[in-house]
Design the sequence.
């Protein structure tokens, strides 16, 4: 074959190679790209600035001024009306009857909030009726109401009532309740160094321990506390 023909065939071959389309590139271009689960980052929403809450000053509770106890002469003048209103309850002199009277008098106290004389008359009558009915509970309830409204010492009223009333009551359950109520006086009396009154109350309730077996350990605890507090007070007094 002539050299010219060989050159021509080579040129045709090279031209053919150079013009062949890139099948692989087209195939890659046409194939779908694999799907990925990765999502584009989500921009956080701008946070709304929290406005500080306006603070209002807490209103101070006004101290309720307690009234002075009305004069005994004013209270005495209301006695006749008192007897008329509670004549039926006053006629029952049993312990249970006196407790009912004390309860009735206490229930009537809210209706006399605008009448200090009548209110004191009812509260004083409730204390006396509770003492006659051997109910420390009603005595203390009346004393607390009186101290809330009038310038009196509730602890002094309660202590005097317990020391001047029968605690044995008419059954063992009521006697045990009286002892438990009286126990509540011992801590404040010892704290105020009124050791004499605390000792008298312990002596008064000691015979009632048989009413409830759980009472004796409590009394023993208070007796130890009373003796220790009295000794510590005597040592402090002697060291001065």
Sequence:
């Amino acid at each position: 074959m002539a050299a010219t023909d060989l050159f021509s065939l080579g040129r045709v071959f090279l031209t053919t190679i150079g013009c062949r389309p890139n099948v692989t590139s087209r195939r890659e271009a046409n194939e779908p790209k694999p799907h990925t689960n990765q999502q584009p980052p989500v921009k956080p929403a701008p946070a709304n600035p929290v406005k500080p809450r306006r603070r209002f000053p807490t209103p101070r509770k006004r101290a309720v001024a307690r009234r002075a106890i009305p004069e005994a002469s004013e209270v005495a003048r209301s006695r006749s009306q008192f007897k008329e209103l509670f004549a039926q309850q006053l006629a029952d002199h049993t312990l249970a009857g006196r407790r009912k009277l004390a309860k009735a008098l206490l229930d009537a106290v809210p209706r006399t909030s605008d009448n200090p004389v009548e209110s004191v008359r009812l509260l004083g009558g409730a204390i006396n009726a509770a003492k006659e009915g051997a109910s420390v509970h009603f005595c203390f309830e009346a004393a607390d109401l009186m101290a809330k409204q009038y310038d009196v010492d509730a602890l002094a009223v309660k202590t005097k009532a317990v020391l001047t009333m029968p605690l044995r009551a008419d059954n063992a359950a009521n006697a045990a309740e009286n002892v438990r109520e009286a126990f509540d006086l011992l801590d404040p009396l010892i704290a105020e160094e009124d050791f004499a009154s605390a000792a008298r109350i312990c002596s008064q309730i000691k015979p009632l321990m048989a009413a409830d077996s759980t009472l004796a350990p409590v009394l023993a605890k208070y007796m130890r506390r009373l003796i220790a507090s009295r000794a510590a007070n005597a040592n402090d007094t002697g060291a001065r």
